[in-house]
Backbone:
């Protein structure tokens, strides 16, 4: 580790950036590095500060300029999440995320993060259903070092059986702390399994415990070899950078990595038509307060078609945003005091079908069946009444403010683009989203609600401490 810190920009023994030669063409640019020529598509600038281009090995690159401080965030996103795992290997995507902080052919275990910290930065990674992402936040002049290290572990991971055993115990303990010790998390796990019967969103991201315990070195390497390739990755660089400089660095460090020739099309199983409501009761003595959750299958943001998703964002706010102004909060928490908590939720960011949810925690003395009937009545009343224009304008202004404030967070902006591109959207879709939100009408919201509120595509869950409460 000290060897690396002594010569932080050349610790892998690669040629410095100045040794690279570049040629501009009408179609893009080409760079020669170590005898290999890397071509890059002509950069496309979208908006005032976002530039995108693609390396000839298939890696997409997004550059977000923000010159207010000499800081940069590098993120590498793989189009490979828990929903892309093989059946029987749940948790392998998250398992591999942990393992990528082990050694490579050039880095000792732990040396990656130690080097980031020694250079005054921070790093981490995260796994979702649709992607796995790795990031570093450092001073802008340390970007070459970050690219050098990140590109190295894209193809040169070195694992041993002891690494597997150690990290497998870590993820099993993580599951114990975050899921097994949390009745709400366990209930949600069962709830998702009931909602998605074919799509792998019904399998927990961290994995089923009995399958996690069987994950092997071969499982991890097979997932890594297939999915961790430049043609399955997106590089997002945000901060005090120039697109031309990022292009040269990306060509130097990532462009020389060969694409995966056997990368299959990203085909997911789809949900069969749900033709009947589903119900479940989850009982756990650790539940402190009984509650109801209902979720409906709901459309997600799609490339070139984000209007319905935007309308559902408004619907979630109108029904269950602030308890002081939302339909559920006003009717159940204040007017009738049927509930002590209400909420509506919708996440538009998803590669496949998402969900729209309602939840109610009944007041003392109110049964779950009474609370559920009251919840249903609120939805019925909402559908029968006109949407208050003042309420719509208030939410419109709130969403506009959120989108403006989001521009102040460099890493948050990088995450928006990375997540969107791994979930089938485009850079232009991300750029268009704020205006699409602003253009939502009351008619759009009612139309989206009519699509969503179909009990035949719903799951209703009661979560209780003891069976006597399930009535």
Residues:
């Amino acid at each position: 580790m000290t060897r690396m810190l002594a010569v932080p920009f050349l610790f892998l023994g690669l040629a410095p950036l100045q040794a690279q030669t570049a040629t501009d063409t009408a179609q893009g640019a080409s760079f020669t590095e170590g005898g290999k020529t890397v071509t890059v598509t002509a950069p496309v600038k979208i908006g005032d500060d976002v530039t995108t281009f693609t390396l000839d090995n298939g890696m997409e690159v997004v550059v977000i300029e923000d010159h207010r401080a000499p800081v940069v965030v590098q993120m590498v996103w793989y189009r490979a999440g828990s929903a892309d795992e093989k059946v029987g290997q749940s948790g392998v995507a998250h398992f591999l995320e942990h393992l990528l902080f082990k050694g490579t052919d050039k880095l000792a275990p732990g040396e990656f993060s130690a080097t980031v910290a020694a250079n005054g930065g921070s790093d981490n990674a995260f796994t979702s259903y649709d992607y796995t992402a790795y990031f570093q936040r450092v001073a802008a002049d340390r970007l070459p070092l970050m690219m050098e290290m990140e590109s190295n572990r894209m193809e040169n991971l070195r694992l041993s059986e002891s690494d597997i055993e150690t990290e497998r115990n870590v993820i099993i303990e993580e599951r114990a702390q975050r899921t097994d010790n949390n009745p709400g998390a366990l209930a949600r796990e069962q709830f998702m399994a009931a909602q998605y019967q074919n799509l792998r969103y019904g399998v927990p991201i961290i994995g089923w415990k009995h399958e996690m315990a069987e994950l092997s070195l071969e499982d991890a390497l097979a997932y890594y070899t297939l999915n961790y390739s430049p043609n399955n990755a997106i590089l997002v660089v945000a901060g005090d950078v120039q697109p031309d400089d990022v292009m040269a660095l990306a060509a130097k460090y990532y462009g020389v990595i060969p694409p995966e020739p056997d990368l299959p099309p990203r085909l997911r199983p789809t949900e069969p038509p749900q033709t009947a409501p589903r119900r479940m009761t989850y009982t756990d003595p650790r539940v402190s307060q009984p509650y109801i959750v209902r979720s409906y299958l709901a459309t997600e943001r799609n490339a070139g078609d984000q209007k319905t998703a935007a309308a559902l964002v408004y619907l979630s706010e109108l029904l269950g945003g602030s308890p002081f102004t939302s339909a559920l909060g006003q009717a159940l928490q204040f007017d009738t005091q049927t509930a002590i908590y209400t909420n509506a939720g919708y996440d538009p960011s998803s590669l496949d079908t998402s969900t729209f949810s309602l939840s109610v925690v009944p007041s003392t003395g109110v049964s779950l069946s009474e609370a559920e009937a009251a919840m249903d009545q609120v939805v019925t009343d909402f559908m029968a009444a006109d949407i208050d224009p003042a309420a719509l304008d208030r939410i419109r202004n709130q969403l506009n403010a959120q989108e403006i404030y989001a521009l102040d967070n460099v890493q948050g902006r990088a995450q928006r683009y990375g997540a969107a591109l791994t979930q089938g959207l485009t850079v232009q879709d991300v750029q268009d989203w704020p205006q699409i939100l602003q253009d939502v009408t009351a008619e759009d919201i009612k139309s989206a609600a009519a699509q969503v509120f179909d009990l035949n595509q719903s799951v209703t869950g009661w979560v209780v401490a003891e069976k006597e409460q399930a009535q």
Observations:
- Residues 1-19 have pLDDT under 50 and may be disordered.
- The chain is about 40% helix and 20% strand.
- Residues 161-180 form the longest helix (20 residues).
- The radius of gyration is 24 Å.
